[in-house]
Amino acid sequence: MKVSKLLIANRGEVSLRISRAAAELEIQSVSIYSEDDQNSRHRLAADQALPLRGKGVPSYMDQEQILKLAKENHCDGIHPGYGFLSENHEFAEKCEKSNIGFIGPNSSTLRMLGDKLEAIRLVEELGLPVLPGIRKVASLEDAKEFLSEQGSIMIKALAGGGGRGIRVATKREELEELFKTCSEEARAAFGNSNVYLEKFLPKARHIEVQILGDGTGDIVHLWERDCSLQRRNQKLVEIAPAPFLPSQIREKIYSYSKTIAKHLQYKNLGTFEFLLDLEDPKNVYFMEANPRLQVEHTVTEEVTGLDLVQLQLQIANGKSLKDLSLTQESIPSPKGYAVQIRINSEIMDEKGNTRPSSGNIRLFEPSSGPGIRVDSAAYSGYDLNPNYDSLLAKLIVRSRSENFTNLLSSSLRALEEFRIVGVPTNIGFLQNLLRSKEVREYSIHTQFIQERISELVQAKPSDSKQFPFEVGSLTLSKSKSDADEIFADGIVRFASPMAGRLMEILPSEGDYIRKGQKLALLSSMKMEHVLSSEISGYVESILVSAEDTVSESQTLLLIRKSDQEEEHHTEDVSVDPDRIRVDLQEVKDRLSINEDAARSQAVSKRHKRGQRTARENIADLCDPGSFVEYGALALAAQRRRRTLEELIKLSPADGLVAGLGTTNGDLFEPHRSRISVLAYDYTVFMGTQGAMNHKKTDRFLQMIKEQRLPLVFFTEGGGGRPGEVDVPAVAGLDLHTFRQYASLKGILPRIAVNAGRCFAGNAALFGASDIRIATEDSNIGMGGPVMVKGGGLGSFSAEEIGPTSVQTRNGVIDILVKNELEGVRIAKQALSYFQGNLQKFESSDQRALRNSIPENRLRSYDIRKLIEVLADKHSVLELQREYAKGIVTSFIRVEGRALGLVANDPTHLGGAIDAEGAEKSARFLDFCNTFKIPVLFLCDTPGFMVGPDVEKKGLVRKAAELFGAGASLRVPVFTIILRKGYGLGAMAMAAGSFHAPVFTISWPTGEFGAMGIEGEIRTGFQKELAEVKDWKERQLLFERLVAEAYERGKAINMASYLEIDAVIDPVDSRKWIVRGLDSCD
Q1: Where's the CoA carboxyltransferase C-terminal domain (predicted)?
Q2: Can you give the pTM of this predicted structure?
Q3: Which tens digit of pLDDT belongs to each residue from 945-965?
Q4: Which residue from 287, 609, 661, 1013 has the fewest beta carbons nearer than 10 Å?
């Protein structure tokens, strides 16, 4: 689709820039402006200007409003500029669906590159170098571990850019505060507090490559820029081309950028950013991609002569690179250098800390002359708007000389000639920066400014190349702020602490005021601020009026100070702390309707069936008084078919109780006992999932994902709820709940508890959980009776679908319990293994282990009794007992310390590992690895099960998965051989090799071989045995050979070859485990 009318979804200088480019291509332009942006220059630069509802940044982020304006005004294209919606894949997708051209890459590219971790994973898959890092949303614990490995790390916001949400951590003691600050800054700037981690390069250059693609796979680069001069990861000075960059590095980053862009079939303008390690200059690493027009695109334009914004518009209008005669060979090579210098309206203290300045620009006179360009929307008389970015102007200086210092000399003079009066700027700081020896030699790196900030701030800038002249009473070259004015003795100025609108001036001239007395009311940043006097005295004069807009530090009143410092005391008004205001009472009344006490009929019905309510289960799970509820006021999305009063009564909390609490708080510290809880309420529409119910779930899951809170989920319910008429939907297949719940895998432990019926969507969530607990009366299935019948599959009662007799044998249910009371108790026990070590424990008499293995090597024994003796008393929690019976997977404790245990059960297949056993073990090992729980193997296996029947169940694939899970373990692993240790099966019970665990030890009953002794003799001595014709003699020979092989494979002989680490008295098993754990801490 050809763009003939372009809406510019941005403001300020970039909006002006796009308007000019569109005009040259004879494309009509439409600007937009917020309620507080009516005096901004961009409003007048376009062919048409449209007002936005709202003020500040949110108005320019209002996707629906902007799209509506575009449609109503017949715009067929939207240019997002940079910032705001420029990298928002959802907005791009909405434009695509509305048949409006989005000037930039398509939505799928934005989605891929907008997620920085996805972009890094893609680059890794392409075989390109990236910095070592944590390839997931990082927790504080991840950061601590990564810092220990690397020594210094970068904590980086997963979303957004512009240097926000980035911190460098080098010391463990400062890490927690930096991590918290980074997350909070990311949440404030981008609405997403997630961060990821990368290795920090203390000496690096930041180089970026500008690319252009037409969506066919044809890509060209437009050379590179150097962005190393930055303050706290925010760019200040950008240069093209990168000074003194080795040619081999140039070619590398060009090649890397084109490889990535070709893979993505990239369309439009984009930038790929890299870090060059100055301590090892042959190494350059991909950092991130910016799929949009960059603030610093100007320097590329100046050295190539290309108009990048026009190229964006032409590509969007369907032109190919070939159509534009843009081959790599035809791209003009850079001629000389160009630099962009960002002039900000800001105040810097002596330590280099900055804050935006405000006020009226009394004079704005940019530099001019050959090789000088200024991109800005500022003008004389403009009142700076504190709601937006502090970038005031971009000064671009071009030099045709190949001598880099010539460029800096021209830039310094341009800064000296730049005249801005009325608001503080960073021009002096920029002069000091460009004059520094390191910049002139370009021996700088990304941390240079930060390391030298105090020196750069405090150095005296060069004299201005300006001549004083008078305009009315204003001397422009020597202008003073109000703070510089000198008043008569005893007169003190009362100034505004911030910019804003003056709502009220309370005293009159001549009034006597006391220290602490309220003088004015100021509205700033949507808040009302009371301004009080710091002295006592008489009001000499009032210099402003109500409704005036005032700037920071502007004088409001002059006060003649009194010698008496009288305090102003307001009358104490006695307030009853127990008084309940009307607004609070309304909330209390509404919330009380949700409580079980107000729903006696529903509660009675549950109790008659022997079941508890959702709130009773939560009260039992959480420590007393610790639970706080999210979304309690939610109601079913049925307001078009029911009254509000009906919904309040019928759908409290929309059938889902969600909140935070603590559990096992008597055993663990507060930060370890915190949990999150979700509970479907079967008394509300049979626990079904409604629209608000889903919305609450999605919000809650996102929050606990960010905070990494363990989750207990009570899942009873009937799946999706029909009749939600308030929400426009056909099938509702665009819900995020199930994907979001699945995405929690590996981030936080999810424990599901089910009692009663659990079908469809509820069952999907139960099944996706890490530990699945169900009561004996549970029925769990992906479809309930109605769905089964509707599918033409017959009529069945709910009790016939997915009973526990089925779901325990197939491994769906991990732990079967009698009722909800036991279910909650088991859930609390399961949580405890992730909460830490216990200080108090009891152990059994370990001497019983000496006789737990029969002396007859062919006789089976009860492995669970052995485990109960070995582990702390009452600490064993077994998973999937009825599934894959040849393998026991349990959580246990030894001296209060949690372990995951995998053991062979000799009563089933003699301890051989079958397909189901391999799958069960691999799942459990992955889980322990994810949540850093050490693993103990108790090995007694003749190996993997063999034969045609077992191969029908995919044993080869599942055995390989078990080896993969073992090899992936990053937690301490210990193996104790109880009796048989044969072949590949025994190796699998030691994470793939007897030398993989921290220790591999054996009890005296241990016996070893490359395969089972009997099988080894029958295979290896087949010929010798066949030569003995007499059956009895043949049997005697066989038994003699077996005995000899047994002697060779005894534990003592095995240890003498150092294939195992020790043979121990079984009594010492716990001692070995504890020593092993201590050695790994």
Answers
A1: 840-1081
A2: 0.56
A3: 988 998 999 999 999 999 999
A4: 609
Residues 622, 675 contacting (CB under 8 angstroms): yes
- Scored b (16 or more CB within 10 A) or e, 1017-1028 reads beeebeeebeee
Tokens of 877: 């929690």
Query: Could you give phi then psi for residue 652, rounded to 5 degrees?
Result: -60, 130
Domain boundaries, the chain: 5-103, 114-131+201-333, 132-200, 337-466, 497-563, 585-833, 837-1006+1050-1080
Q: Per-residue confidence at 481, pLDDT binned at 50, 70, 90?
A: very low
| DSSP states of 618-675 | HHHHSPTT--EEESTT---S-TTTS-HHHHHHH-GGGGEEEEEEESSTTTS-HHHHEE
- Selected residue with higher pLDDT from 1081 and 423: 423
Q: Give residue 283's identity as a one-letter amino acid code.
A: N
Assess if CATH 3.30.470.10 describes domain 5-103: no
Instruction: Give the three-state DSSP class for 825.
Output: helix
Structure tokens at 550: 């005032």
CATH number of 585-833: 3.90.226.10
Q: In sequence order, what are the residues at sequence separation of 6 or more whose Cβ sits closer than 8 angstroms to the Cβ of residue 575?
A: none
CATH for the stretch 114-131+201-333: 3.30.470.20
Strands (E), 256-385: 267-277, 284-290, 337-344, 346-348, 354-356, 363-365, 372-376
- 708 assigned to active site: no
Mean pLDDT value of segment 939-950: 92
Among positive and negative, which fits the CA dihedral 766, 771, 774, 780? positive
Instruction: Find the catalytic residue in 225, 292, 342, 923.
Output: 292
Does the pLDDT at position 853 exceed 90?
A: yes
Token pair belonging to 158:
């997963």
pLDDT at position 756 over 80: yes
Mean pLDDT of the chain: 91
Distance CA 165, CA 1060 (A): 50
* CATH superfamily of the domain spanning 337-466: ATP-grasp fold, B domain (3.30.470.20)
- 123-154: string of b/e by CB count within 10 Å (b at 16+)? beeeebebbebbeebbbeebbeebbeebeebb
CB 713 within 8 A of CB 741: no
Q: CA 327, 206, 105, 26 torsion: positive or negative?
A: negative
